[in-house]
Model the fold of this input.
Amino acid sequence: MSQPSRKSHVVYSRKEFDVLYKTKAGVLPEQADLFAPLTAAPWETENVQGIVLGWKERDLFGYRVLDSGCGSGKDSVYLAQQGHMVLGYDFSDSAIAAARRRAREHGLGLERVEFAIADATDLRLEGEFDSVLETGLYHTLAEDKRVSYLSGLRRMSPSGNLLLNCVSDILPLNFPGPFLVSRDNISSTFRASGWKVESLEEGWYETLFTPETIRQFSVLRDLPPVDERKLVLNDAGRVMCPVWLVVAT
Ligand SMILES: C[S@@+](CC[C@H](N)C(=O)[O-])C[C@H]1O[C@@H](n2cnc3c(N)ncnc32)[C@H](O)[C@@H]1O
Done:
């Protein structure tokens, strides 16, 4: 199945992701460029996303959780604080360093939360998990990588569940972001990877973008302008990104 075509496509390499997690510390000038005018990646919000809180409220997480593409560990640390045993992994060294720092700052030991550097497209981690949490990695992978990625997660959790959110194809045209994912793509890819989709709903993911910073971002990168009439904002004036919420077993 081909990717929906779009001129405002922004997908980062491992090196660039790695740089993104350093921007908060204000390291090198060229690093600050990747998400300028934001000073951090747009998913680095202060609070745990309502999506994850909602899954927790519905009691969907098993005891042992694998946080796939955990970034700076916000969700892993939250779930560990809620009594789960968590392994978070990411291919970015600086993300994992930030996640380990976060866990230490919250007084969480390795018996509660651990972090590892690993590549989702060639997953070689040990262990078996009751739940896999996946917020925002799937939609960074091109189509030809998705089945083997999700099959790898199935091996890590042969009888558990997968809670995943990814950017949906109802995103306003020209929004700068990763691959847009269609409902059909989810159904076929999950089936081919050994996962049964139990529910597939529309949801909203808070970003650090405002309409103004999206405009500046697009101008800086010579991207086509976003149709701002279609942007949905939360009470803080931040852009909410439409996502698919997938629960699979
Ligand atoms: C949009 S961010 C989401 C991070 C985190 N889950 C959150 O919601 O804050 C996507 C994450 O996936 C990681 N990632 C992308 N491709 C990856 C791969 N092939 N293997 C491991 N991690 C990957 C990136 O480094 C990044 O941290």
